[in-house]
Amino acid sequence: MTPTTLTFHKYQGTGNDFVMLDDRNRQFDEHDSRLVRHLCDRHLGIGADGLILLRSHPEYDFEMVYFNADGFLGSMCGNGSRCTVAFAHYLGVIQEKATFQATDGLHEAHIDADGLVHLRMQDVHGQQDVEGHGVFLDTGSPHLIRFMPTSSLVDLNVFAEGRAIRYSELFRDKGTNVNFVETPVAADQPWQVRTYERGVEDETMSCGTGVTAVALAASRRGAVSPVHLRTRGGDLRVSFDARPDGSFTSVYLTGPAVRVFGGAIAL
Ligand SMILES: N[C@H](CCC[C@H](N)C(=O)O)C(=O)O
């Protein structure tokens, strides 16, 4: 029987916002990209950068299935993962610790006494310099990093600049997320990041896999773990161990994850 309303929860992590569905009984049709797009529509639906299904998993606490606002399955989502951990806690699926499956494999996470979610990312193997573009890293999602001159980020047209790179010949087929970064002028200041997201095809307030990629790329430019990053939607922290071979292990993304509201939408 087709339900006439769909119960949802709305979460945000540093302003990267998600429609969250309790899909433990696997009722949601993950091929219904039209419905996902509709639910993420800020005018006609609920409005979000993406939609996430929390599903039961035979071995781990849960599985996270992430869709971009364009309606299609995305790759790993760092802010969305932190929100899903908070949602699992809200539902009583976990206490403070979680293990869960995402598109890039197993993750572990915990919620600290301040409510911040610490999320372990996959190890990252290397980074490539992309001639004329910047540095490319895969932190579960593809990220291009472009380091910018001091004070240039505030007036940057991230939509136009990011879009031009994302649809350039090099990235057109698979797409990429694009992060613009300002190096802090003093060591106690945060690295500032603005991100154009593939699949949302717009600037978002924050991108978790993006700031993770930025922190790792910044470690080649003097940043020391834990790295403090500032997005338009708030602050995040990334810690890691850098290996001599250029890879990174024990990579953690830490930041807030907030339930904003819940409701039911007519279908
Ligand atoms: N906002 C997400 C990234 C989503 C990646 C998505 N845009 C894709 O490339 O499929 C994050 O916090 O990590």
From TrEMBL:
<keyword id="KW-0413">Isomerase</keyword>
<comment type="function">
    <text>Catalyzes the stereoinversion of LL-2,6-diaminopimelate (L,L-DAP) to meso-diaminopimelate (meso-DAP), a precursor of L-lysine and an essential component of the bacterial peptidoglycan.</text>
</comment>
<feature type="binding site">
    <location>
        <position position="16"/>
    </location>
    <ligand>
        <name>substrate</name>
    </ligand>
</feature>
<protein>
    <recommendedName>
        <fullName>Diaminopimelate epimerase</fullName>
        <ecNumber>5.1.1.7</ecNumber>
    </recommendedName>
</protein>
<feature type="binding site">
    <location>
        <position position="177"/>
    </location>
    <ligand>
        <name>substrate</name>
    </ligand>
</feature>
<dbReference type="GO" id="GO:0005829">
    <property type="term" value="C:cytosol"/>
</dbReference>
<comment type="subunit">
    <text>Homodimer.</text>
</comment>
<keyword id="KW-0457">Lysine biosynthesis</keyword>
<feature type="binding site">
    <location>
        <begin position="208"/>
        <end position="209"/>
    </location>
    <ligand>
        <name>substrate</name>
    </ligand>
</feature>
<comment type="pathway">
    <text>Amino-acid biosynthesis; L-lysine biosynthesis via DAP pathway; DL-2,6-diaminopimelate from LL-2,6-diaminopimelate: step 1/1.</text>
</comment>
<feature type="binding site">
    <location>
        <begin position="78"/>
        <end position="79"/>
    </location>
    <ligand>
        <name>substrate</name>
    </ligand>
</feature>
<feature type="binding site">
    <location>
        <position position="68"/>
    </location>
    <ligand>
        <name>substrate</name>
    </ligand>
</feature>
<feature type="active site" description="Proton donor">
    <location>
        <position position="77"/>
    </location>
</feature>
<feature type="active site">
    <location>
        <position position="77"/>
    </location>
</feature>
<keyword id="KW-0963">Cytoplasm</keyword>
<feature type="active site" description="Proton acceptor">
    <location>
        <position position="207"/>
    </location>
</feature>
<keyword id="KW-0028">Amino-acid biosynthesis</keyword>
<comment type="similarity">
    <text>Belongs to the diaminopimelate epimerase family.</text>
</comment>
<feature type="site" description="Could be important to modulate the pK values of the two catalytic cysteine residues">
    <location>
        <position position="143"/>
    </location>
</feature>
<dbReference type="GO" id="GO:0008837">
    <property type="term" value="F:diaminopimelate epimerase activity"/>
</dbReference>
<dbReference type="InterPro" id="IPR018510">
    <property type="entry name" value="DAP_epimerase_AS"/>
</dbReference>
<dbReference type="GO" id="GO:0009089">
    <property type="term" value="P:lysine biosynthetic process via diaminopimelate"/>
</dbReference>
<feature type="site" description="Could be important to modulate the pK values of the two catalytic cysteine residues">
    <location>
        <position position="197"/>
    </location>
</feature>
<feature type="binding site">
    <location>
        <begin position="197"/>
        <end position="198"/>
    </location>
    <ligand>
        <name>substrate</name>
    </ligand>
</feature>
<dbReference type="InterPro" id="IPR001653">
    <property type="entry name" value="DAP_epimerase_DapF"/>
</dbReference>
<dbReference type="Pfam" id="PF01678">
    <property type="entry name" value="DAP_epimerase"/>
</dbReference>
